[in-house]
Amino acid sequence: MCQFGDSSKIITELQVPKDKAIIGWRNNYITNSFNESDKYLRSISNNYLYPKNEDAEGLGLERENSLGIYNYNYNNYNNIQIKTLHYGKIFSYKEGYRSEYCKVTHLIILDKDSNWFKDEKTVSFANYFNNLLEQLAKEYNCETLEWDKR
């Protein structure tokens, strides 16, 4: 059970400069995945679209509220995964962090050389999925990282 937002579950409070940002992981959706000009990363837990080419801000981050940008401190294997850096005021929880700022650094693509991809339909899907994420990574000015190398 995730304890994010429960101030009694905060382990530490940190002030982290951007050049020493902490790695985190998020799960997201892609909005409008079939619309070439209107794709965004969207949080699965709230209606937040990550801005392209700028850092996300978790405005109003305080110990007593649940505002901020949530990042797991481990890989959670669901949905579209992104690797992030987070900095500023940060609350550390067992599962991860609630931060004031967040920058998307990598979108996780599928490793097509994996044993999972043996039949033609699965390879076709992996190619489509990876192309979609590679294009979106350019829009977010970030890189891609293969699933097995994260």
Tell me about this structure.
With 150 residues, the chain is mainly beta. The protein has a domain at 7-108. It is built from 1 helix and 8 strands. Strands 1, 2, 3, 4, 5, 6, 7 and 8 form an 8-stranded mixed sheet that branches. The model has no long low-confidence stretch (mean pLDDT 85).
Structural class: mainly beta
The tally of strands reads 8
Reported for the largest beta sheet, the result is: 8 strands, mixed
Shape: elongated
Strand content: 35-45%
Regions with little confidence, pLDDT below 50 for 5+ residues: none
Q: Total helix count?
A: 1
Helix content: 10-25%
Spatial separation of the terminal alpha carbons = 24 Å
- Mean pLDDT reading: 85
Order of helices and strands: EEEEEEEHE
User: C-alpha Rg, in Å?
Assistant: 16 Å
Short characterization:
It contains 1 helix and 8 strands.
